[in-house]
Amino acid sequence: xxxxxxxxxxxxxxxxxxxxxxxxxxxxxxxxxxxxxxxxxxxxxxxxxxxxxxxxxxxxxxxxxxxxxxxxxxxxxxxxxxxxxxxxxxxxxxxxxxxxxxxxxxxxxxxxxxxxxxxxxxxxxxxxxxxxxxxxxxxxxxxxxxxxxxxxxxxxxxxxxxxxxxxxxxxxxxxxxxxxxxxxxxxxxxxxxxxxxxxxxxxxxxxxxxxxxxxxxxxxxxxxxxxxxxxxxxxxxxxxxxxxxxxxxxxxxxxxxxxxxxxxxxxxxxxxxxxxxxxxxxxxxxxxxxxxxxxxxxxxxxxxxxxxxxxxxxxxxxxxxxxxxxxxxxxxxxxxxxxxxxxxxxxxxxxxxxxxxxxxxxxxxxxxxxxxxxxxxxxxxxxx
Length: 384
Hints:
By secondary structure, this protein is α/β, with parallel strands linked by helices. The chain is 37% helix and 19% strand. The chain has a ten-stranded mixed sheet with strand order 3-2-4-7-1-8-12-11-9-10.
């Protein structure tokens, strides 16, 4: 089925962070109401809702979120809950896109949320580990699994440990610098590369400041079909998407340390449209750990495999005129799992809207687990 553009009518987001005095219901309500208000629609014009969430049943003992969110609306629209670990938000947008493309609905809300900080770190780590293969990777943590990818990357490309360490620290420091201007970010504080390098070791070579944190928060968007992009010419449009899967466990992969699902999803995204990677000006990519950014920028095809560290150390960036994670990414903005894929879209829209010229493009890259699920979305800025 040909892909028709979707206008992004409105966006809403809560603060991300340790929001102990705010309930999961309040987070979902806040993001939902803001997105609808910004869309210019009335609540009863929402035809369907897609809710992204990984583990509310574990964190909050609250399941059945589709009914919970539908109850916010007087007409109780049909609502669907999507789960794909940390890619839940991206997958919910894919599902909403399919429904709109089919003509089943006219206006759709996609909302994602997670409330992660009301349990202890050990319990939260155990819950998150359910996004890996419980049978074959039992006892593993995601810092450990991504550290393994970092070690494999360093070995495959014959990198000096000090060079990889310096690159990872630059990535983290840049994320924190970007978050300084993001009012919703969990960490609005600059951290120097030296401080990142000196932070405690978690899983070699990853240190505390290489890792995204547990977060609470929600984000929402309102979408509608706009096939010719004439109904809402000044608004950003979602113009293509990619959705790829891979083996849940690392042992089932054929090209480690790279994430084949990222390459596949990115290819799908570009194959649907007549633009190239050179047209992309901004990417919100899934930097759950600093090594994930290096893998993503290569697996998405912006750099040749094994070259990202050298580029970063030599120039301080990967490619000219390509902005990475203006929100601060997962690392500094925060990572309330169900909300992340939707927040990425909102951040790209905000950046594209700020540009003085029209028809600029941005990508979002949302990963579940260690690449078992990957969602990529391509967004075109509205005409100025």
